[in-house]
Specification:
Blueprint lengths: L3 E3 L6 E3 L1 E10 L4 H18 L1 E11 L10 H13 L4 E4 L5 H12 L9 E4 H12 L3 H15 L6 H8 L10 H5 L2 H31 L4 E6 L5 H9 L16 E7 L3 E7 L9 H6 L1 H8 L3 E7 L4 H14 L7 E6 L6 H10 L4 E2 L8 H14 L1 E8 L4 H10 L1 E8 L2 E9 L3 H4 L9
Parallel strand pairs: 3-4, 3-5, 5-6, 7-9, 7-10, 10-11, 11-12
Antiparallel strand pairs: 1-2, 8-9, 13-15, 14-15
Helix pairs in contact: 1-4, 4-5, 5-8
Length: 438
């Protein structure tokens, strides 16, 4: 049965829904992987406002093209949902439009059900959470674009489905009226949203270029959702950011100044968290926001030390690969390490020797992390254009010795160099820079 609870984001009382979660161990994938993914799906459902009534995992060679699990199993799932009075069935993979429609039809003719059962997939659930949590104009537009692109191929019959389902999980976002409109209307809306996002993207690009001209290094916080990135940002910079024990509580990037050892100032940017099977529609819609990651000098990869570390790292690296940011140097911070036993902490240090163990909540390991970030930035080289007068041949020699000279020419004013140098050398070379640091 649905229960009345308080929405953790906004405060008003909302009716929570109940869900049956359905996963599949496909091909050679093990049941352990499927159960782990369902654990995450359960957390996603809870964040969206649904309590899990039951979980089901089926081993299959490949998804059934018509009903994902096969008609017999699909009917069994629907009957279980009816007995448990569940409001919805959530599948742990993205359903094709045909699978979704066929499952809706099976759910609609179930004689045991006294209400219409909603069929939702992982992508729809994540998009729903993003719709709830988007705060800025850009964030709302990005979520709307992702939802419209997701629902467009599923438009056939969707108006009838929405009229039966009413409100709740899976129906939030750009608005029921838009989704019931003709395909041409939705396509026009998509183009309008894209234009609005393009204007906001230009503004973001200008701000990013202004930051680059200052030569101040940028560190981007990346990591699995709910790994503690926002907590770490707040601890390091006293930023007034939203911190909640929820998945995807942060959608809009937040940038703050951070002081490192040796009087180094950097900019620290928090970004949206990642998960397994992050919908491609979201990666595309949030691409301009994720550019903040791609343009960073260094990544601070925050990992929850109390969850499956390898899966977290793999999921984050997959998204970094998709946006072209995997080659950016990174420091891994194993967060929430204060909750580990001494034995587990020793084991982690042995397996992840380059990682820094921290607790963003209690401040444990923060000084060591700041020192590590400072050291990593010192190792990085940046490209500069220099015009050095002939009487400063010592600086030309230093650039040759410590850096990488890409181009060298001479004029009446002196030596013209395009080189890659350590960022720490910029203090001495700043007066001779002919172009901003990239």
């Amino acid at each position: 049965m649905s229960s009345l609870t308080r929405n953790r984001l906004d405060g008003p009382e909302v009716e929570r829904e109940t869900a049956i979660l359905v996963g599949a161990a496909i091909g050679t994938s093990g049941l352990e992987d499927a159960e782990f993914s369902l654990d995450e799906l359960e957390a996603l459902a809870d964040t969206a406002g649904a309590d899990t009534a039951d979980r089901m995992v089926q081993r299959i060679d490949r998804p059934h093209p018509a009903t994902y699990l096969g008609k017999g199993k699909a009917r069994e799932v629907v009957e279980t949902a009816a007995v448990l009075e569940a409001d919805m069935v959530i599948f742990d993979d993205e359903l094709t439009p045909a699978q979704g429609r066929n499952l809706e039809e099976i759910a609609g003719v179930n004689p045991l059900a006294d209400k219409q059962l909603k069929i939702i997939d992982r992508t729809g659930l994540i998009l729903d959470i993003f719709a709830q949590h988007a705060r800025s104009a850009e964030g709302k537009l990005q979520v709307e674009l992702a939802q419209l692109n997701y629902r467009l191929p599923r438009l056939r019959g969707w108006g009838d489905v929405l009229s039966r389902l009413g409100a709740g999980i899976g129906t939030r976002g750009p608005g029921e009226s838009a989704l019931e409109a003709e395909r041409r209307s939705i396509l026009r809306r998509i183009e309008r949203v894209k234009r609005d996002l393009l204007d906001l993207e230009r503004t973001r690009r200008i701000k990013r270029q202004q930051r680059q001209r200052t030569g101040v290094p940028v560190i981007a916080l990346v990591g699995y959702t709910n790994a503690g990135k926002s907590t770490l940002l707040k601890h390091l910079t006293d930023a007034g950011v939203l911190i909640q024990d929820q998945l995807f509580s942060t959608l809009d990037p937040t940038t703050r100044k951070l002081s490192l050892p040796h009087d180094r100032t950097v900019l620290l940017t928090d970004t949206v968290g990642f998960v397994q099977k992050l919908p491609h529609q979201l990666v595309e819609a949030f691409r301009s926001t994720l550019e903040e990651v791609k343009e960073a000098n260094l990544l601070l990869h925050v990992v929850d030390a109390n969850r499956d570390i390898e899966r977290q790292i793999a999921a984050v690296q997959q998204v970094l690969t998709e946006i072209g940011a995997l080659d950016i140097p990174a420091v891994i911070a194993l967060n929430k390490s204060d909750l580990l036993s001494d034995e587990d902490m020793e084991r982690l240090q042995g397996r992840h020797r380059d990682a820094v163990l921290i607790s963003a909540h209690k401040g444990y390991g923060i000084e060591g992390l700041l020192g590590r970030l400072d050291a990593e930035l010192s190792r990085l080289k940046v490209e500069v254009t220099l015009d050095i007068p002939f009487d400063r041949g010592d600086l030309v020699a230093r650039v040759h010795d410590e850096g990488e000279v890409l181009k060298e020419s001479y004029s009446e004013r002196g030596t013209h160099l395009v080189a890659r140098v350590r960022r720490e050398s910029l203090t001495d070379l700043g007066d001779f820079m002919a172009a901003p640091v990239e």
